[in-house]
Design goal:
This protein is mostly beta strands. The protein has two domains: 237 residues, no CATH class; 141 residues, TolB, C-terminal domain (Neuraminidase), CATH 2.120.10. The chain is 0% helix and 44% strand. It has no helices and 30 strands. Strands 5, 6, 7, 8, 9, 10, 11, 12, 13, 14 and 15 form an eleven-stranded antiparallel beta sheet that branches. A four-stranded antiparallel beta sheet has the order 1-2-3-4, with no helix packed on it. Strand 20 and strand 21 form a beta hairpin. The N terminus is likely disordered.
Length: 385
């Protein structure tokens, strides 16, 4: 693949860019689901728009770095990822030996970086292992708890800004019991009391833009295991304040990202408990909302049967991983990973292209100026742009 330099700086969340907002497609259709482009590609960049006009559903511009909750992250020199059981690893981008940053007997789910530390989450598993977000120096060393005593309803996804760690969780007692609905919390990066930023109900993993937190608010419970419920994309000031609903759609949301001056999300089916396919009747899409826009746009619409497991953005376009397949029988998931996942590139103004195949059933993504990284069974896949 041709290498192309991206005008960006690696941040605590491994993704940040300058300019080059992604294209927008057509307005949403009568079913409340944005209609958009096909697999053919991504349209050109929209005209620039001004800051928030104060109308509900219009995104405020802050020009801050994007955020993205993931199991993999990169800085200027290394790529970091988590493996079972509760181990955070790192490797030079030039290759070489893989080193252990931290091992936590309570687990490690998602990670994020700042200049000095790797942050990782672990879900509640027992009174000895309450749900936590911790940090450790990048070169290894003592692990410090940032916050604890939480359950994470959706895998412990979290993001950082210059001040805080943001996550969706529920306070838990020693038995793991707590409220029936989750909220968005913020805790100081150096450790301290987590406070509610947004409520009353939240799911998934949040995103931040330097001024606001973006989060998902489900509207009720699904009628059956394969049906998605309406979910609102919400915006709340990062220090607390009034919630603003940006969009509501009846889809399963698998990723939420902020980049440049736009918020992005993946609306896609996925395979869940007993391999039931949740929200698989509608095509998988990447949707977005930017300044001056009151309705979300569909940037990419996948063909039938293709499910998006993760997405990241850079100033050149989108990178997507597609869910693979699993054969055999079993509860939760069939036991055999067929390694049929794929990495897809959708450049702004260009055609979609497959850049890697044989990925695991689910693969998470990170990007920096020069490379895209995708999780595999052992060390990550690294591809020059």
């Amino acid at each position: 693949m041709t290498r192309r330099l991206i005008c960006s700086a690696v941040t605590a969340l491994a993704l940040v860019g300058c300019g080059g907002s992604l294209a927008t497609g057509s307005n949403e259709n009568g079913r409340g689901e944005p209609s958009g482009l096909s697999d053919a590609g991504l349209a050109g960049a929209p005209d620039s728009a001004g800051a928030d006009s104060g109308r509900a559903g219009v995104l405020t511009v802050h020009g801050a770095p994007l955020s993205h909750a993931s199991t993999i992250a990169a800085d200027e020199s290394h790529v970091y990822w988590v493996t079972e059981p509760g181990t955070v690893l790192r490797q030079s981008k030039l290759g070489g030996a893989v080193s252990t940053v931290a091992t936590d007997r309570c687990g490690a789910n998602r990670i994020a970086l700042d200049d000095a530390y790797v942050y990782f989450s672990a879900g509640w598993s027992s009174s000895d292992c309450p749900g936590t977000v911790s940090r450790v120096p990048k070169v290894g060393g003592p692990v410090t708890r940032v916050t604890s005593q939480f359950t994470f309803p959706d895998g412990g996804g979290f993001v950082l800004d210059d001040e805080s760690v943001y996550f969706v969780g529920m306070p838990a007692d020693a038995s793991g019991n707590g409220p029936s609905t989750a909220a968005v919390y913020a805790a100081p990066k150096s450790g301290g009391t987590a406070v509610v930023v947004a409520a009353p109900a939240a799911t998934g993993a949040p995103a931040v833009d330097g001024e606001n937190v973006y989060w998902l608010a489900p509207q009720g419970l699904p009628p059956d295991p394969t049906t998605a419920v309406p979910v609102s994309i919400m915006q709340t000031p990062r220090h607390g304040g009034a919630n603003r609903m940006l969009a509501t759609l009846t889809r399963n949301i698998t990723a939420l990202v902020f980049f440049d001056d736009r918020v992005y999300w993946v609306a896609s089916g996925r395979h869940g408990v007993e391999y039931l396919c949740i929200d698989c009747g509608a095509p998988a899409q990447v949707q977005s909302l930017g300044p001056g826009e009151s309705s979300p746009k569909a940037l990419v619409t996948m063909s039938s049967g293709k499910l998006i497991s993760d997405a990241v953005v850079d100033s050149g376009g989108l990178w997507l991983t597609l869910e693979g397949t699993r054969s055999g029988q079993g509860i939760d998931y069939p036991p055999n990973d067929d390694h049929t996942g794929a990495l897809i590139r959708v450049p702004t103004g260009g055609a979609q292209e497959s850049v890697a195949t044989d990925l695991p059933f689910v693969s998470d993504l990170a990007v920096d100026r020069d490379h895209v990284f995708a999780t595999q069974d052992t060390s990550p896949l690294s591809l020059a742009k």
